[in-house]
Amino acid sequence: MLVEKKDPGLGQPAQERLTIEGIKELRAKAGKLYAPTASYSDSDMFKSPQAYGKPKAKRWDHLLSQESKAREACVLKLAAKHLKKPGLISLGGGLPSAENFPIDSLTMHVPTPPRFTEAETAASGQDVRIGKYDVARGENGGVYDLSIAMNYGQSVGSAQLLRWVTEHTELVHRGLPYSDWRCALTIGSTGALEQALRMFCDRARNDAILTEEYSFSTALETTAPLGIKVFGVKMDGQGLLPGDMDEILSSWDEKARGARKPTVLYTVPSGQNPTGATQSEQRRRDIYAVCQKHDVFILEDEPYYFLQMQPYTGPNTPAVPSPATVEEFLDGLVPSLLTMDVDGRVMRLDSFSKVVVPGSRIGWITASEQIVERYIRHAECCSQGPSGISQILMYKLVDETWGHEGYLKWLMHLRLEYTRRRDTILAACEKHLPRDIVSWVPPAAGMFLWLKVDHTKHPQASSKSILEIEEAIFNTCIDKGVLAIRGSWFRAERDHAPSGLFFRTTFAAASEAAMDAAIERFGAAVRENFAATA
Amino acid sequence: MLVEKKDPGLGQPAQERLTIEGIKELRAKAGKLYAPTASYSDSDMFKSPQAYGKPKAKRWDHLLSQESKAREACVLKLAAKHLKKPGLISLGGGLPSAENFPIDSLTMHVPTPPRFTEAETAASGQDVRIGKYDVARGENGGVYDLSIAMNYGQSVGSAQLLRWVTEHTELVHRGLPYSDWRCALTIGSTGALEQALRMFCDRARNDAILTEEYSFSTALETTAPLGIKVFGVKMDGQGLLPGDMDEILSSWDEKARGARKPTVLYTVPSGQNPTGATQSEQRRRDIYAVCQKHDVFILEDEPYYFLQMQPYTGPNTPAVPSPATVEEFLDGLVPSLLTMDVDGRVMRLDSFSKVVVPGSRIGWITASEQIVERYIRHAECCSQGPSGISQILMYKLVDETWGHEGYLKWLMHLRLEYTRRRDTILAACEKHLPRDIVSWVPPAAGMFLWLKVDHTKHPQASSKSILEIEEAIFNTCIDKGVLAIRGSWFRAERDHAPSGLFFRTTFAAASEAAMDAAIERFGAAVRENFAATA
Q: What keywords appear on the UniProt entry (chains A, B) (predicted)?
């Protein structure tokens, strides 16, 4: 996997990059954050001065759907501007009084960086306490409390967590090439994807999107009912092939395809689900160039971005030294499409699901001001933003308790956890799988290993379809006690016959001993199916 | 306000109704709930045997949108059925391992029923502790823990909270008239409404809905961008007028109206936003009959249902004795449309926002199996259900700590809190408002007082429009230091001139002293505007 990083800042001098120290200075200068119940906030309140020395993003009016263009600002939220008037008494918003919130305090026990394991958390973790009136009383940090978190909030998210997310985004994607980027919290990337699709695609316009030929099944199930057609782009071990994408778009025949030329690419650049493929920096640049050429907007879905692992060196070889500092860790990450996005044609989807907990139902998007504004207008009429309870716990953890450095150390810890798990499944594959039939690319990121089964070697290859062989192997797997997911379930174009035979396995969930047994069973199932029957 | 309740069970003998004791017996019989990470569950697992002795709901295929009909089951969730096989090792779902969840335990401090005030909570509240592995370790109840709540879950909600919600629904809406009703958790009623609109309405079909002539502005803003037209039904002090609704539907002219005859009614029966009107039992029966006559599906949005207050008796009169028992409390509630729903044509939207905390972002719907199934198929591709962190806190509070009886006592406590607040604002109105110009109906539920200003008495009534007078009063109010919301912002048909001049005020948020001052300022603003200028 190519993970070298030459110039993530696109020519920007290194000294201009925002650092953890720089964030501390900015916060000190800004003074204590005052953000009471349902406060308005946006990323511009938290971006560094460096972020503004670039041109603005392009406008996307010509791509927006009828639905998105029709959204107007919430009339009650407009009235909120009067709340700033000193001495004004509001009989306006129907917000319950915090005195009627029956949770008085919350305390969570969390690890102290860098001692992140469960045993270390039990031994040296800390209790983080959150009271109802911490802001008024100046207690427990005095910035965010239950009276705020448990009431209604803004759909963009609380100012407290939005500040952290904005800073984190600037820290990681150093030097975004346009100035008017913003973040907004989401209820997770599945919901954010649905909103994005409704923002850019119209059933009535006969819109279509492009994605990897094998793609996240829930994303496909989100797209289809909206009347949006999905077309798959061929892949190799580094994921989506820009040449094939260019070819598809250059030769687009609306009539033959039954859909308008796609204006949206949905891609998972790192540890793609289901293939585990990670796009190299050059691959990303090439994909971006094709999107520029055909004026395609990019939905960059990156739940596994921070699950980029140590390079795989093979069994019984010395491990590559892990990053020694958070700077080294950040330098080692493949640059995001966001860092290459001179046009502002990327909406990046981040999520806490894979790197903290899925049950928080919190993620965030980063995109141009225009796109984020349209997104928030929609969120005000559907999710209204993520759970305030989740937000305050996440804020207390990643901001007040860990800080940016502690959080990056947590990600470095996870990197090694996932490296170990990946190496375990790869060792099991090398031990148990028939190498003449089953092949794989060691994943550089994520939680999936994509196993390619050479169906041409099957004794009934000429009479049985790939789907039939796949189903037979799947059933034998279940009989033998292992669940691996059928590759055909991920086809972007479900009505087309698959070109190959694949199974998706994950190394995220099962214990390491169980993974070895599971791969052994999978190998036995393949061998049984490929044995010439008498 | 008519809040008498004659026969909420529709003729069902009282002994068949589910009681709190009955729930305890059912739970004892069912044994300890076992619902590990991402368990499937549905209300049928938790309904009482009494719930099944009724006919099934009607089918609604003829009303469903193209989008809703196209939804298919999630392919990865289908694979989950194999997980039941003993000894099977899953390399299937990409669920992170709980060992990588950095929150080890949560503790919340909550009141002990019936001592619910903040002072009582501080003095006699209890600490509720939640560990990561409580289920495996048999600790802290052993039914629901952080390893489950912080991982992915089912979109219908966790079995633990769904059980409570199902039981609560059966307890409150005693004797639903059809058997195949179900509940599903939501991320709040705004999101649930958007999903419902996408389920029943099609832009391409030129669909329309009916609602109160003054309606919740966010609901209107949710509807409009979907290309769904909204038509308002006239109201009186008891809300929507069934006669006007019948008249609108009977005389529907698709061409003149520019939309198909409405197939959906969106209504807030109790403490309607913005008018504060509460439909009596007879009013609800009459509305239901009109919906049957015209085959209209009902979205019953009831965030304020449990904010039904004590009857208003006027200033300096003895208070009506409050309900002595939870049974008396339940008997005093106006029956829901759900209890009248022989066809299964109601989707009821409930929410914890107004009665526990808005920041949980948890509510639930109740409807027929067909409708709930379509709803969940959509939720799997957008919200994926509410935050697991919110779910476990809410479960621990309302189920394990309070139980059904404790929760009903909490609602009884809130009833008196809101009664006191309402009586405060009404006393202020009687003291400070010019009764010859401003009039109101004392609200029987909710958090809003709707003030009608007689614009015909304005000195420039013949030359100024209602909107102009409304704007002038609003601005004077801001000058004098009070924010009251302009009635015209809630018009269902925004392009039509309003028929009257109204302001919405809330008694939920401001302190009781501030409310008196605010109403005094409002009165002064009205007087100033209505004073004949020389």
A: Aminotransferase, Cytoplasm, Pyridoxal phosphate, Transferase
